[in-house]
Amino acid sequence: MQQFKIWLSAARLRTLPLSISGILVGNALCLNQPNFSWVLFVLMLFIAISFQIISNFANDYGDGIKGTDNENRVGPKRVLQQGLLSKEVLKNGIIFMSLVALILACTLIFLAFESQSWLYIIVFIGLSIFSVWAAISYTVGDKAYGYRGLGDLFVLLFFGGVSVLGAYFIQLKTLSFPAFYLALSIGFFSVGVLNLNNMRDQANDAAVGKKTMVVFLGAKRAKMYHIILMVLAIILFVGVFLSNIYTFFWIPFLALIPFFLHLIAVIKNSDPKQLDPELKKVALSTFMLSVLIFITLYIG
């Protein structure tokens, strides 16, 4: 039981809602189509969660062996940092979850496309393998992209583009402008979560040579960058929901209230250590927005 709790801690359950936000939005846009598949939708949720767990295990492992997770780190203690799991055991966990994710992904792909298009099957299998690589390579390896200021780009790509557009395409075998704009919106919100994390850890990251976007920009410009991300995400979401006729279009707008409160808090903030609650607020608000979008399009 104790070992199970340790693995749950390594999985970082608080990060999982954000990981399925794009899946919820991408599928929500397909709900009014007669060929919408609930089986594919559920599979996508499990795949997104499995990819996030791989990323969390790998992040724990990569930052742990590099010494980034040390006594100066502001955020929650990691399992490798505390000695709760060894490097070898955690590495085996990454391999196991990678296999689980790929098996689920292949099941989804063959159910979605059957033998209709081997090109789509090959593309999505390649995308699944790339997703596993990206989840691991954020902090693991000598060329970890999270240490080179590329984390923001990959979060935008996967939490926005792959999640929303991938889900939409798997359901309908096509794309649309609303899906593209909402992919950017969810992507920018997700990058905002990462940016808050990096703003909180800026001093320690700079000291150990982890060159995040925040380290490159500096504290003041990182705050402005964050505000731009949030505002763009809100504008894109509002634009989609005001330009399309949805019966209960106003419901998701309720989720914008925490974002405005968050922006005020960030603008007033002068101590990066106090940003951890804001990180949770943006992550959960993005998830809530996605749930409300799904509910709105389901009942409308």
Estimated radius of gyration: 19 Å
Oligomer: single chain
What is the residue-mean pLDDT, rounded to a whole number? 92
Strand elements, count: 0
What proportion of the residues form beta strands (DSSP E)? under 5%
Structural class: mainly alpha
Task: Give a verbal description of the structure.
- The protein has 300 residues and is mainly alpha-helical.
- The protein has one domain.
- It contains 14 helices and no strands.
- It starts with a helix and ends with a helix.
- The model has no long low-confidence stretch (mean pLDDT 92).
What's the layout of helices and strands?
Blueprint: H1 2-11, H2 16-19, H3 21-28, H4 38-66, H5 79-82, H6 87-113, H7 118-137, H8 151-172, H9 177-200, H10 202-208, H11 213-217, H12 219-243, H13 256-268, H14 276-299
Question: Keywords for this structure?
Answer:
74% helix, mainly alpha, 300 residues, 0% strand, 14 helices
Short description:
Helix content is 74%, strand content 0%. It is an all-alpha fold.
